[in-house]
Amino acid sequence: MLRSLFSGISGLRAHQTMLDVTGNNISNVNTAGFKASQVQFQDTLSQVLNNAGAPQAGVGGTNPAQVGLGVSVAGITTNFQQGAARLTNRATDMMISGDGFFVVNKGGEQALLACRRVHL
Q1: Global pTM?
Q2: Are residues 2 and 50 in the same domain?
Q3: Residue 59 sits in which domain range?
Q4: What is the DSSP code string of the chain?
Q5: What region holds the Flagellar basal body rod protein N-terminal domain (predicted)?
Q6: How far from the centroid of its chain's Cα atoms is residue 90's Cα?
Q7: Are residues 73 and 90 in the same domain?
Q8: Using CA atoms, how far apart are residues 117 and 94, in angstroms rounded to an integer?
């Protein structure tokens, strides 16, 4: 009984995280330079109820019986693929493309921007 409840609850928690990430992607879809994220899931544990049986004379073996004990979030990955070029009509804007990161410095605070090549 508790095993089935734990599986359901862990699935709901992982699904809530996926909905949070999807909501963030949707709310920022029109933001210039936004990079979408994706949730990666993994099994937590599984319990073996019956081990595999060896083949006998004239009869094949038997498969093991396993019960999953839930799911968890393995990580949240960011899509760093090149986005589409977008005209902003501002002289101070630039497009960043290519491999690597572009470092900006404002007031002594540094930030990294994902990029491949810088086009000025």
Answers
A1: 0.61
A2: yes
A3: 1-79
A4: -HHHHHHHHHHHHHHHHHHHHHHHHHHTTTSTT---EEEEEEE--EEEEEPPBPPBTTB--B--EEEE--EEEEEEEE--S---------TT--EEESSSEEEEEETTEEEEEE-SEEE-
A5: 8-35
A6: 34
A7: no
A8: 11
CA angle 103, 107, 110 (to 5 degrees): 25
Q: Which residues contact 62 (CB under 8 A, 6 or more apart)?
A: 50, 52, 53
Claim to verify: residue 7 and residue 29 sit in the same structural domain = yes
Cβ atoms of 93 and 108 within 8 Å: the answer is no
Q: Give pLDDT, residue 118.
A: 43
**Tokens standing for 90?**
């501002």
Worst-scoring range by mean pLDDT, 9-13, 37-41, 54-58?
54-58
Q: Which residues contact 28 (CB under 8 A, 6 or more apart)?
A: 34
Tokens of 97: 């493309």
